[in-house]
Amino acid sequence: MTEILAERRSYIAGRWVDGEESFDVENPADESVVTSVASASPADVERAILAARDSFDQGTWAEIPVAERARVLRALLDHIETLHAPLVASMVAEAGQPVLFAEFAQYAAGLMLARNTIDLYLSMPHEQASPVPLDELVRGGLKASVRRHEPVGVVSAITPYNGAIIMAFQKLIPALMAGNSVVLRPSPLTPISSLAFGAAAEAVGLPPGVLSVVIEEGSAGAELLTSHPAVDMVSFTGSTAVGRSILAQAAPTVKRVALELGGKSAQIYLPDAVEKVAAGAAAVVAMTAGQACVAATRILVPADRKDEVVQIVAQAYSALTVGPPSDQKATMGPLINAAARERCARIIAAAEQHGGKVALGGGRPAGLDRGYYVEPTVLDLPDNSNPAAQEEIFGPVVSVLGYRDLDDAVRIANDSPYGLAGQVYGADLAAATSVARRLRTGAVNVNAGLFSAYAPSGGYKQSGLGRERGPDGIRAFQEVKHIAVGELR
């Protein structure tokens, strides 16, 4: 059995720091203790912030040539590749996720995302002439009007438990390529894997303070990272409730805030594509157990075929194998902790109280007495006002709803406080794309999906602010400066 990563301490300002206290990291697959890790104190976190501030203000990273930043970050990624086996083992142990998910959806996809982000950054202009008409330049006595994209400064990157490594790649690489100094704070539920970034920063000689990784049991350090005046930007992925708190904490110092928050996405099946529902529904829970903010947990189908679809989805879900990562046949693992499992149970019960029916699942899988497992669950809901259709569940629970026509399908999909993602299936591409354009979400997949360094993601409404990935995701970590140049008279 592969050992997990060896380090158990925060990496702050170029040094590994022993915490005064420690906490246990639990394996949600069997409720065992993976290991104990040192917890950073608020003073430790502030030291990381101030070191980031100092490194940025001195220009030790921001002022070196972009090509050199790219070289160092590629070397950092090369070092992470040398940690392949223990890094994957760490993700599996601390999150209970299937090996294939850790191996491909986090490790391999993260490295590809990171390397492509570097290439994308190098292909983009970061200083160019502003599109000012010549007569305006002449009238103003100007020789040039220049627009520069400069680093924001000190960035707090706060990542979630369900995709600790892929989310870290998504935040760290564009922020560092842009010349920022970054403090990474992973979820205390899955802190071990993120320490790989500290090891890589040390191995390539990243200047002290440019990248720190702080792990803590509580939230005091996280609150410092969102409120400290030395921090210029907060990039957070997590729940909408925590996102609201971060906005309040960042407001007094008017920080830039990028938030990728909760979702209640819909997958809409046009009448000519209902036969695709089994595969689309299975993708919601396979590997992630529904623990994904973009999970399309509302399945919208023509009302006259709803009963048929409920049975199809139930049959597909009954074929899923639930179990620990050690079970090579398992396609779905546990939820992250007891609270997550209890939330699923609460919302399923509320769905029934409001007229919904449990077509499959709803409880603990047989034979799995330890670990935070929930059966793949299919709900037959009467309408979109049901709690299961409105609340983000973050578990292996999908709801089937019927629509009268495509206008009604769009209305139902948009009837949500969230707007993170969506899916449309249809053989008639013109009709399917027309529906996609009407959805109030940050990303919509029509018949296929794309996760790429070149394509942005982000939310409408209470699903967040700003964008990650793509050119917009790089610009999120930059300020825009205008320079007007004229001769001295």
TrEMBL record:
Q: Name one GO molecular function term.
A: aldehyde dehydrogenase (NAD+) activity
| Annotated EC | 1.2.1.3
State the UniProt keywords alphabetically.
Answer: Oxidoreductase
TM ranges: none
* Active-site positions on this chain: E260
Q: Which residues form the Aldehyde dehydrogenase domain?
A: 16-483
Q: Which InterPro entries did the record assign?
A: Ald_DH/histidinol_DH, Ald_DH_C, Ald_DH_CS_CYS, Ald_DH_CS_GLU, Ald_DH_N, Aldehyde_DH_dom
Specify the protein name: aldehyde dehydrogenase (NAD(+))
Q: Which organism is it from?
A: Parafrankia irregularis
